[in-house]
Structures are given as C-alpha cells and as structure tokens.
Amino acid sequence: MGSLRDPDAALMLRVQRGDTRAFEELMARYEQSVANLLYRSLGDATEAEDIAQNVFLQVYKSAGRYRVSAKFSTWLYTIARNLCLNELRRRTRHPAVSLDAPHPEHDDEASRSLPDRQVAGPVESTLHAELEAKIQEALNDLPETQRTAILLCREQELSYEDIAAVLGCSLTAVKSLIHRGRETLKRRLKPYLRTGEWPGP
C-alpha cells in the first residue's frame, strides 16, 4: 500500500527523515487507542501507560526500518502486541505476590485508559463499573490470541485482514478466533446484559 493511500504511513516516512512533528501527530492519533488495547489486554492501567510509552519509543527507534508494505496501524499494533506478550511472559515467570495490588473493579485510575463516556448518575456509574469489571474478568480468561483478535476488531475497528497481519495468522484463523472468543464472552456476560452481547467501546 502506497503512502498516499495511508496518511499515517506518509507521516511515518516523514519521521524517517527526522520530522519530530510528524511523530507527535502519530502519537496524538494513536496513543489513547494503544493504551486502551494494552489496558484491556493486561488489566492494569499503570502498566498499560508504561508499555504504551515503550511502544512509541520503539516506533521512533525503528523508524529507519519501516517499510510501507502494510498500514501503519497494522505495524503499530504488531509492536504493541509483542510488548504486551513480553509483559505477559514476565508475569508468568515472576508472578506478583503483593496483597496490596489494586483490583480492576476497585481501581479508579483504570478508567483513565478507557474511552471517555458521558457523565452518569451514581447508580448508573456503579453499575457500569461493575459491568466493566465483569467484562475485563471475562477478557482476562480468554486465550491471548482470542482476546487480542476481539479487541482489535471491536475496539480498534481493524479489518480481519489487518488483524491477521498483526497476529501472523490466516484470515480463516482470525474468523475462528473471533467467533470462539465472542461465544465465550456471550456465555460469561449473559447474566449481566439484556442482550447477552458484549457492548462496543
């Protein structure tokens, strides 16, 4: 795909030439969505913000190796997923033992990494927070590939083709991952939702 068809790729080519304003524009466009993806994947707002910063640091450092062979967003989310996988592997090797670690349903800071929503009353806010906690819990229990495929589809609105590029799998595999993940979420969340469907962002 040529850079003229992907304005983000055109910006990245400017970053290659040392244009810091182009890099700042890319960050402004994608920083929140990358942080949201990482938060949904990790369930920790602070870690999501830290890793999001590392994602863009790697984007900047890797600018010289960037090639316009796919959408910039595909390349960006591939980097984000790789760093997220590194963190998940680190957790497996060094599980946290602190009893003071905040839980998502009680972590007020976690909402900073989620999309802005309309102001609601206290009861509605409490119910929404409880639902968000149940959604996050259900997402955490999905296999990583299913979770990432669903998040890239529902929250980042990537095409199945782009998701396949990020995950490094076939289009058929992506469709299967999303179908199985949605069915699992539907079963888990049905008691909390009138439709039994996981709501969009």
Please state roughly what percent of the residues sit in beta strands, choosing from under 5%, 5-15%, 15-25%, 25-35%, 35-45% or over 45%. under 5%
CATH architecture of the largest domain: Orthogonal Bundle
Let me know the average pLDDT. Answer: 82
Largest sheet: none
Spatial extent as radius of gyration? 18 Å
Give the N-terminus to C-terminus distance in angstroms: 28 Å
CATH class of the largest domain: Mainly Alpha
| Spans where pLDDT lies below 50 across 5 or more residues | 97-119
Please, what is the CATH homologous superfamily of the largest domain? Answer: RNA polymerase sigma factor, region 2, helix turn helix motif
How would you sum up the global shape? globular
How many separate helices?
8
Total strand segments = 0
Query: What would the CATH topology of the largest domain be?
Result: Rna Polymerase Sigma Factor, Chain: A
SS-derived structural category: mainly alpha
The amount of helix comes to 55-70%
User: What sequence of helices (H) and strands (E) makes up the elements?
Assistant: HHHHHHHH
Total domain modules: 2
Characterization of this structure:
This protein is an all-alpha fold. It has two domains: 1-94, Rna Polymerase Sigma Factor, Chain: A (Orthogonal Bundle); 124-201, Arc Repressor Mutant, subunit A, CATH 1.10.10. It contains eight helices and no strands. Helix 6 (144-154) packs across helix 8 (171-189) and helix 7 (160-167) packs across helix 8. The chain is globular. The two termini are 28 Å apart. The model is unreliable at 97-119 (pLDDT under 50).
